[in-house]
Structure prediction request, 74 residues.
Amino acid sequence: KLQTIRGVYSYGWHAIDGERRHAYDLALGLVREGKVRLDGMITHRFRLEQYREMIEVNRNKALHRAVKTVVSFM
Prediction:
C-alpha cells in the first residue's frame, strides 16, 4: 500500500467586517494573535530514520491516538 502525505487543506471565503477574507488567512490570524493554540495537535514526532514507525502510526491513527505526526530534522 502506498503512503499518502497530505498538507493543509484550506478553502472558503468569508465576509468579515465588509471585507472578503479567505478562511486560511483568518485561521493564521487567530494563531498569530494567540487565540488558537496548535501545540496539542502534534501528538507524535519522529526522526527521519524512524520513518517505518511513522508510517505505521499514520496508517493506524486510532490505535496510536495520533492526530498530527511530524518529522524532526534536528
Summary: The radius of gyration is 16 Å. The first strand starts at residue 13 and ends at 16. The helical segments are 23-32, 51-59, 61-64.
